[in-house]
Amino acid sequence: MESYHIRGGTPLHGEYQVKGAKNAALPILAAALCRGGIHEIYGCPEIGDASVMMNILRALGADCRREGNCLVVDSRQLTSAAVPHSLMSMLRSSVFLMGSLLMRTGEAVICRPGGCNIGSRPIDIHIDGLRHLGYTVTEDAEKVVCSGRCRGGKYVLPYPSVGATENLMMAALSGEGLTVLENCAMEPEIMDLQGFLRNCGFHVYGAGTGTIAVLGGKGTSDAMYFIMEDRIEAATYLMALAGTGGEGMLTGVRGGLLGSVLQVLENMGCRIRSFQDRIELVSSGRLRSPGTVSTAPYPGFPTDCQPQLMTLAACAAGETQICEGVFENRFTHKKELMKMGANIETCGKNAIIKGVDGLQGAEVCARDLRGGAALVLAGLMAEKETVVTGIQHIERGYEELEKGLRQLGGNIEKKSERKTEKTEESAAEAGCISTDHGSGSCVSVLPHV
Ligand code: UD1
Questions:
Q1: Which of 326, 369, 444 maximizes ligand 1 atoms within 8 Å of its Cβ, making it the mutation to test the pocket?
Q2: What is the pLDDT of residues 43-62, one digit of tens each?
Q3: Which of 105, 186, 351, 366 is most buried, most CB within 10 Å of its CB?
Q4: Taking Cα atoms as reference points, which of 255, 267, 262, 153 lies closest to residue 214?
């Protein structure tokens, strides 16, 4: 049982170098199977989800090792096209293996990436898209079995799902001719996946726009690729600077990727200078409400920054309305923030936050990755000590968050507590850990964002 112990109230200041993007690294690791080769992937963050993805690749027969800042994936020999149950249910992003395994082997067997507590997260668009491309897909309550080759043509996604766009890009590579995907998600991480695939010698065009064209082919070379920066990690650090009344600079991040977030922070009173490779922020001290903020697919305000924004709004002068436009159940942090004194009311996908003068430290529990980050921010802003438990969720997607925040002057420490029956029971009661060990069910107990 590990937890963060945070003493809040200190304005953060200084410089932080943004790490590689989780949401680019995970599909790119899956894409390393599309062409059998020895691929070098640089800048992959050392996070829990990347370790699980590496274990999945190993289970499929690839050799995967970390050499410093580089992940080397040798995917020349695959021994299986079936993603093991136990690993699949640990990682929502394992769904990307459908596309890459189909491209490589003409078959893929996955179990359903389970429900989690930010929404039902079905994979119907992935499956519908694969069928339209010509694959045979059979599914039951537990498994999805896919086979065949892509026959090309056009598929219009009914919603710009990030994961479905990425999966279909990979699945379309097996086609004889041209496949056109329309109404695609436009997230920058999709451009990064395209960059990787092109580095392998595949022909993929248009990522970052609503229309992506994929020309079938086998690929021509081993890749050497640098993962893009993590714009959500960057936003989290910017919000930590803003919320604590601090000032600082993030390096290795293109300000242009964070337009909607920077706009909201400016509306809250922060002074921001955004450059090609860095962002500087000076907080106004007490922030003011940004009014109404709705999350939406890129370039809209990212749903992955909504929990952190709720923390800032909790102490901002005035009333903030947040509309969660992407997931149907993404306010799990609300109850915990209220334990710290926040005034928040939710109704469905809407939240109204009335800014209070300050938060007080409390023991709170992270129930998902970004909700957990929001609680860490709250701890940095609060008076007295905050203990955040359930940090395994946070570590799935942030590399050493506590070290980065300490580097900016935050008073945060990670502590380990020996697991006793009592601590395990109370954590399970609070929903911080699973008590469902290896039941064989595919329903995941960890939220996978
Ligand atoms: C990705 C990101 C996640 C981010 C999300 C939205 C990765 C690894 N994860 O997740 O951090 O929060 O984009 O920006 O990149 N949907 C369906 N059917 C489908 C697929 C999606 O109904 O087949 C719905 C989902 O339930 C959700 C919405 O579409 O309500 C967005 O999901 P999607 O864009 O697919 O998100 P992910 O790819 O899972």
A1: 326
A2: 999 999 999 999 999 999 99
A3: 366
A4: 153
